[in-house]
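Design job #97: recover the sequence.
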């Protein structure tokens, strides 16, 4: 669970090095209702596009982890005044949860 907290905080801060180090080479990012990104290279390209979206506050309401799966939900407030509720589901490379193999976020503007 601590790893997922650090991962979401790094995401909010735009810490691209930590984020890309935390995923497998064949990572699959299924942004529900938007797009699917496959592979670390495309993952990095997509992160670069999102870098300009600055987060002013991140509230993690629940962080769960069990075996090779985990989930996080909360609220992300951006500096531009837009707020998003999110729920994200993860599959890890192994039960230790140090590398993410897939991510499936659901994001709703609130």
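Job complete. Output follows.
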């Amino acid at each position: 669970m601590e790893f997922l907290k650090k991962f979401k905080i790094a995401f909010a801060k735009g810490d691209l090095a930590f984020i890309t180090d935390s995923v497998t080479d064949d990572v699959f990012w299924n942004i529900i209702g938007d797009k699917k990104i496959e592979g670390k290279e495309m993952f990095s390209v997509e992160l670069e596009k999102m870098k300009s979206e600055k987060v002013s506050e991140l509230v993690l309401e629940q962080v769960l982890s069990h075996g090779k799966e985990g989930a996080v939900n909360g609220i992300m407030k951006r500096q531009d005044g837009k707020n998003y509720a999110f729920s994200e589901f993860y599959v890890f490379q192994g039960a230790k949860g140090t590398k993410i193999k897939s991510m499936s976020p659901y994001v709703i503007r609130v």
